[in-house]
Write a structure and sequence with these properties.
Elements (H helix, E strand, L loop, with lengths): L2 H55 L5 H10 L1 H4 L5 E7 L5 E6 L9 H8 L5 E6 L3 E12 L2 E11 L1 H53 L14 H49 L3 H29 L4 H4 L2 E4 H19 L2 E5 L6 E4 L1 H18 L5 E9 L2 E8 L30 H11 L3 E5 L5 E8 L2
Parallel strand pairs: 7-9
Antiparallel strand pairs: 1-2, 1-5, 3-4, 4-5, 6-8, 9-10, 10-12, 11-12
């Protein structure tokens, strides 16, 4: 049995069992109600006949007149459907007169006579002779004010028992048939309802075998699975984009590592081939420089690949304005050696933000270093500071050549470069700076300007 047939079978079995269970409960409740109503009706019938006989004999003072009185009204009392026998007793329990259907014999009922003698009106359900069900009722009859007779009416319950037996038979025999019909109907309905899901799973299985590049077929409009298929297709698109970025990242990283390795090998071969110690030393110094460059590259890659580590979670309030002034002084020293100007506009008072101060300093310095690298001689780099709502923003702007249009979409991608080579080094500084800012709950964005380039780093206020 396939998984889908198994699912349909189990769902159909559970649902049909629930439906049949509800139906059985309703049937049993109906049966109980019918039994109670039939029992009440038979009791009332027996009591009615006993009261009717009591009215007939209440005016009869003696035993001699009693049977004659009954004979005169026999056609009014019998035959009546369901009435078996009417009996009249003296107070001491002697049977003195009766009217009966053929084949019905007298059955003693001393308990009922005793209760009637005490002023009650007892009713009893009994089975007599071949399990014939009856109801009998007794009643005390007074002549004048004095008790004189006890009357008993016996009523046949066979018709009620037949009705109850028929109901039981219908419940027992009809239940399995109804259960089978409900199961078949539910199985068919579930087959239609699960077909879109079955097709979606088959499509996903084919897609998993073929790999990325295709999409799930979306169900017809109005299907509940349409939204699921659209979300899965969106996830596939994003996964495909992520895989593409990872492939490009791996290719770029391989290229960035291959070049220094090639140079290191060349310098090492020179050092091994020549006998001049000065040349060999120069080659070894070049190798050390290349190794430092590779170390910086690997450190940057590791930083980009890090998740929410303990170091990144160790955020604490710190004064961002003081950090901006401090980095501005360092940038001013670097700028003086290159003939550049650095202008810092930061408030004198503290502006407290939440984050890892060392990492935020690294992010800001990456942006500053990038700006200082592109400002021509006698150019200027400006750091400005402002607050907007619950966020502080540091803007770093230079009056260099600006960012080429082809590089703007790739500014924050590792190894991103434009046609004019705006990004020098390994192209990891801006990517790492944005990663640090976002991990701190802020962001780093490129701000288009008429001249030069500007980047804005925002952080949440503490």
């Amino acid at each position: 049995m396939s998984i889908w047939r198994s699912i349909r079978f189990r769902l159909a079995a559970v649902s049909s069992a629930a439906v049949v269970g509800v139906g059985l409960a309703i049937g049993l409740a109906s049966y109980g109600r019918l039994a109670a109503e039939l029992q009440h009706a038979d009791m009332e019938f027996a009591r009615h006949e006993a009261l009717e006989l009591a009215q007939v004999v209440s005016q009869v003072p003696s035993v001699d007149e009693l049977q004659g009185r009954l004979d005169t009204v026999e056609t009014n009392l019998l035959p009546e459907e369901g009435l078996l026998r009417l009996e009249v007793f003296t107070l001491d329990g002697a049977l003195v007169a009766w009217l009966t259907e053929p084949g019905t014999e007298h059955e003693p009922w001393p308990e009922g006579l005793a209760l009637a003698r005490a002023g009650e009106s007892p009713v009893e359900f009994v089975h007599l002779g071949d399990a014939r069900p009856e109801v009998r009722a007794a009643h005390l009859v007074r002549h004048g004010k004095a008790p004189r007779w006890i009357v008993v009416a016996r009523v046949d319950r066979a018709r009620s028992e037949r009705a109850l037996a028929g109901t039981r038979r219908h419940l027992l025999l009809g239940g399995p048939g109804v259960a089978a019909l409900v199961f078949a109907a539910m199985y068919g309905v579930l087959a239609l309802a699960l077909r879109p899901l079955h097709e979606l799973v088959n499509d996903a299985r084919t897609l998993a075998a073929e790999g990325l590049g295709r999409r799930l077929a979306e169900p017809a409009a109005g299907s509940e699975l349409g939204e699921l298929a659209r979300l899965l297709n969106l996830m596939l698109s994003r996964a495909e984009e992520t895989m593409g970025r990872l492939r490009r990242f791996a290719a770029d990283a391989s290229h960035e590592l291959r070049t220094p390795l090639t140079r290191i090998r060349g310098e090492a071969e020179v050092a091994l081939r020549v006998d001049d110690p000065a040349v060999a030393r120069e080659a070894l110094e070049s190798i050390v420089d290349e190794l430092d460059s590779m170390r910086r590259l690997v450190d940057g890659l590791l930083e980009l690949a890090r998740g929410d580590t303990a170091e990144l979670r160790a955020a604490a309030p710190f004064d961002l304005a003081a950090l901006v002034r401090e980095l501005g002084e360092e940038a001013r020293v670097v700028g003086e050696t290159r003939g550049l100007g650095v202008r810092v506009e930061a408030p004198e008072g503290p502006v407290v933000v939440q984050g890892n101060r060392d990492l935020i300093a690294r992010a800001l310095w990456n942006v500053l270093d990038n700006a200082l690298s592109y400002v021509p001689s006698s150019g200027c780099v400006a750091l400005s500071f402002d607050q907007e709502g619950d966020r502080a923003r540091v803007t770093i702007q230079d009056d260099g050549p600006g960012v080429p249009a082809d590089l703007v979409p790739h500014l924050f991608q590792p190894f991103g470069r434009g046609a004019e080579g705006r990004v020098r080094g390994h192209g990891l500084g801006l990517a790492l700076a944005r990663t640090i800012a976002r991990r701190a709950g802020g962001d780093l964005a490129y701000v288009p300007t008429p001249r030069g380039a500007a980047f804005a780093l925002t952080l949440p206020l503490a």
